[in-house]
Amino acid sequence: MAAVCDNAIVVIHSIGPFNIPWNVHPNITAIVYAGAPGEKTGLSLVDVISGQYNPRGRLPFSIANDEKDSGTSIVYLSLGFPTLVYSEKLSLDYCYMDANDITPRFEFGFGLSYTSFEYSDLSITMSCDPSSAASVAFTIKNTGNFDGTEIPQLYLTYPANAGEPKKMLRDFDEVDIPKGQSKRVMLNLSLRGLSIWDTASQKWARPSGIFTVLVGASSKDIRLSGSL
Length: 228
Known about the structure:
Elements: E1 8-12, E2 28-33, H1 41-50, H2 94-99, E3 117-126, E4 132-142, E5 148-150, E6 153-157, E7 168-172, E8 175-177, E9 182-190, E10 196-198, E11 203-205, E12 212-216, E13 222-227
Parallel strand pairs: 1-2
Antiparallel strand pairs: 3-4, 4-9, 5-8, 6-7, 6-12, 10-11, 12-13
């Protein structure tokens, strides 16, 4: 289609990652990842593409430039009872890409809107609640011309001695903000979210050291940071 149409919109229906090397074609002006929306596919796409509905979806995986960039591969075995060894452990998708300085085509947590958002005023407060370790608060302002919904994401970087990925998603929210207005948002870090599994003691334990708190619109679009 892109070969004969200079304003092609590509709609992708998929339940997992995929390769899109053709996205750089000059005639492809938009790509919509629609997942598997069911019988209302056509009507919902018309609403989004025409601007009647402001999208808020975010990618639950990264779209890599090359299949090997994801840190694991698809195993095609149709017979018998294969043994799969999860040798990648936590090092896959954005965790693998961060560790190897790989820039994806579209990163984990990425999504577009017809408006824009600005983040500010980060504060991190230790919690008195025994089920929560800390509260992370910040302000989001809708700086565009349309009402919209932002999906702020909270990532955590563990102390270097913990041996964890560079950052891990720990919380997120869905925040409706009218144009020109601001909202104060609070996300939480749980005690489990700060802990790693200690094989020696066979229990969850919080590693010693400084944690870095990252808040942003995707795994690559970090807007605010602080320490804990």
